Amino acid sequence: MGKNKDALVVCSDRSTGVGITVWELETGAQLLHIPTCAAAPHGLLCLRNQFLVASQCNRHGSFGGGAIFIWPLNKPRSPLRSYTMEAIGPLSCTKDGIYIAGGAPSGNAYLWEVANGRLLRTWRAHHKSLKCMVFSDDDSLLICGSNDGIIFVWSMISLLDVEDSGSSPPLLHCLSEHRSSITGLVTISVGARSIFVSSSLDGTCKVWDLVSGRLLQTQVYSTSITAITLHPVEQLLFSGSVDGKIFVNVLDLGPVEDPLVTTEDQAFVLKGHNGSITALTFSGFGLISASEDFTFCLWDTIKWVVARRFNHRKGAVTNMVVIKQSTLLPMSNHQKATNQFCVSLLQKYPEPANSGEGMSTFLSLSACRNQQTSTNFQGNNLLDHLIFDSEREQTPVMMQMKLERSMDDRMWVTSMTKHVMEMNKHLQSRLLDMMQCRLLCPYETDSSPKKKRQKLRTESPGLPEGQSHSAG
Amino acid sequence: MLGKREDKEEATFLSSTSYDGKFHSFQLHSWVLRPSAFWVESLKVVPLVICLSFLLHSAGACNHFCFSCFYFVIEIVSNSKFNTQRLARFPNVKKDGTLLAGKLIQPVLKLLNDDSVEAVWEGAASLLYTIITFFPAAIHHYYDRAEAAIASKILSGKYSTRTLKKLGYCLALLPKSKGDEDSWSLMMQKILLSINDLLNDAFQGVEEEAKSDEVRRLLVPPGKDLPSPLGHTPLESASHEATRSSERLPASTVSTLIFCCCKMLTSSYPIQVTAPIRAMLALVERLLMVDGSLPHTMLPFMTAMQHELICSELPVLHAHALELLIAIIKGMRRQLLPHAAYVVRLVTRYFRRCALPELRIKLYSITRMLLISMGVGMAIYLAPDVIDNAINDLNSFGDEDVETSPTNIGPSTGALPQPSNRKRKHGTKTGSPEEKQTISSEVEPLNPHQTTPITVKIAALDTLEVLLTVGGASKSESWRSRIDSLLIKTATNSCKRGWGNEENNNFLPHESTSIWVDFQLSSLRALLASFLAPARIRPPFLSQGLELFRKGKQEAGTKLAGFCASALLALEVLIHPRALPLDDFPSSYQTFTDGASHRFPENMPFYGQKGDTMFSKSMQGAEQSALKSDDDDLYDRWLQNENENENIPIENMNDKRSRFNFVEKPCANDSSFTNILEVSEQELAAPDADVHMRGKDEIMVQPWHSQESIQQTQEIVSAKGVTSPVVARNPEGTEIEFKAAVSASDGLNQTDHDIVSDVLADKVDGFDNVCGNTSSTISNVEKVNASVAHLDSDSSMDSFPAIVDADPDTDSD
Description:
Chain B: Residues 221-246, 402-448, 794-813 are annotated as: Disordered. Chain A is an alpha+beta fold. Chain A is 18% helix and 36% strand.
């Protein structure tokens, strides 16, 4: 029953000692604590519901490179520690968990393939520090927001083009409407249209058309917006501000031509935090907001009051991810990990160019789960073929069978004829005997010769008339 | 299904009883094996396997067990597959089964190696397949021998496609018996290498030398050794034998090997493996890029015969290359992304040259797969080419009559003639006069600009639909209007000559109607996508499209009607944009926030409540309950709001109707249709409504009338039964109304007047009788029923029940 309940994964960027904590949302109990993790904002994600991935904040003065840790959710004690060229801030993964993108404070972006850990591409994405990365709904576009308020949209296909690995991949859009650092990016698809919403410290949220790059709507607030999230069903945008307020606004995306500007007074405000909002997310229970006042709140989405307040004493929460509690259960021995989605260490350096020629990719055959059922239907229907052929009598076997049967029939017929002929002979001889008998001793049987003659006739109707006459 | 199969089994066994007495033991076992008792039978398989292996051993020794013996053995094993499958569920039995199946392998391989009839090999392949599938461990020891046996059969390439496919399937499944990564990769590598080597021989002279090395280079990195050839037999000898002896290209071998690759890619495997994706793509490219044209330097080295041979095999090879590409896309899914650009280049380059209907259909389906799996990003790349090609394909019938000519069905089924003529553009220079003759005869019925087979058009329409849904918004300003007008044109043309149901298939005498129905369905579907896909302006052809959908909806009982109905539903949002409370969410919020902000949450939608995702209902309901109790002026204001809300949509609708100039015709039709229904419900006496009444409408309406009339007369009579003093009044009343009805019916059909009045008179009599009889008992109602039924049976005219209906209605009024 309780397997499908949501759990909340929380981490902070204060110090690595704080680590990751998993909370049960319903009761407020701590389910799990993973030590040594400090992730930058947008630097924690859940991969394929099986792994937690977190980029590690660079501890000043410790070492030059950064690190990305990957914990299997059911075996959280043994993380995969991958070290990168430089510290990675924001992370993002595709919906199917095949690729992970990471951005560095220097403005470089990295793209890994998770299954074999290959660093597929690094490129100079921004001039300033990368703040936020997100994949579009169909995973075909990558959206990056940077410190200077510029948003870039890249096409994954051109990013990963093997033959064109020049220094700067072609850019799909460059959106520079924001005047200050980007703090949040969310994608949503309305109808057949993909759009995304960006929030910025300049106090605006902007709604963009992802493909055409047009600005659809601007929402202006009096304070800086630090986090945004979307209601999963309704078109409601929640934006958390620097002073602890959460604005609730409607994303009205009718077929409007000119960019719409909505202002703060149209929004409904949720007040419950004292410090700046750091993260917003949704679970089945409702909105969850985290703030710099060391608390995070679960909001009752019916009455819009704080349903439960959690205290995270170790530090302000910077990242929240909602997972299913069932994923935390240790794997039973019965389920062999043969077909499990595998994760490799993310490589530090891209592969040399010439080795790309013999390149091969991991093939995940996820159809193996239903191995039994899938093969059941692939059987050959030899019997059907056989019956079909036998109906048309085409196969040599059937021909031979038929031949043999007809031979049998013929033999049976010949034997039957023989039999009949034998019987005939026998009868004839008996008749001859009788005739002889009568010819030799006619007077012994004179009592009723006529009857006898009749009897003879009935016994052998095939006898010619003349014989019986002569017999008489 | 099972029962049928049982019957079949029984039939074969009965037939085999008369055949020979030697197989009594088999029969015994197989009778036991019939799927009657689950537990018993699964345990009995083991002795069967023992029996079979023994027999196969002995069969090897004595010659008089001819092939039919094997055939029966194999057949019985196939029969027992039912049981084998079930058997696999029980670990203990499975162990024994593996052991025994292992004993079976050797004789089966021997069968494969012996020179025998093809049917035996086919059966042996099936048996091998069964064993690999269900007892993969059994074949482990014989892995190399099995590989060698199958490979030699495939490489000889002498057998029918079916046998070869089965063998290929076995080869593809072989690595499963080991189940590790290396064996899969090795097998794949071997297969690809042997395909490449075969192609080296085949394409000598029609492609640049450099290409032949590329795949090999990709497959075998410079430092590493070549793997041993497929089946451990030097490929050269086998293939040379095949090519030289029969003087033909090893197309069947190549296609079997490619089929094998496809199966390896798409079927399941216990662990993740590494696929040489670059090499496979390079192979596909190599196959697709050979178009039969001769490089000028090669001209002298190529005989016309050789060239002819290659060209005749090319379409098949191309088709298989596309199959391989499809399998790669299916198997790799999104992991193909690093190679997506390569695939896109390949596809677009080939799209421009490909003219064969079959290949084009395959290309379109590849395009669809790419679009769906990779989304908008792919649409940006593929859109221009897809649009160009689709416009070419769909525009090719400027005249609708092209569709009706039966000749263009020819190329779609008989695929081969066209490519050879296309690809022999250069080749004809060297061709002999004979060839030229054949070419010209092939070309004659084909007019390249007019005859696009309808199947290609369907594929093109489907692809456009996917393109519009996936990437309708992507930089579409340039092509959107062209596509929209093309789609509405196609849809109207497809629907012009009637709907493709069985009754009126006279529009295409030579074509099966199902294709035409598919075409209509695809065109309508694409049209719907073009309406719904996001655009900057409202769809310009919406009214025409709606007309088409409405017409299509009337074809009751067909697939088209179902689709049209759902299309109309989907378009409803577009026609009447809903004035939903989401719009007035901020305003309604504003009215509340100044007062008590705690009440606001009741209007908010919330996530997680079941079945109530609609914003409007929950909100309005909540508001209503909350506000009624409050009883202040807010409620009035809210009521006002609601009224406005109710009014606005209607006005909107009217506005929009006029604005988007609904064509007069459908409106008129609609109104008349609804009029008829209304009138028939209330009064039938309005003659002007009856004028419209014809055809189907009449048929639809009448049965309802007769029922209704009976019911209503029942009511009347029962009422009379209760109030007996009024009896005298009622007949008069009805009589008067009869007259009214008759006078009304004058307008309808004057000739029937006499009959109708007679019948009416009868009816009045009947009523009198009934009134007399219904003094007390309720059971008389039945009699009335009878009498009414009698009246109905008397009435020879169809229109009669309608008029009978008129009087009770007016009476009740």
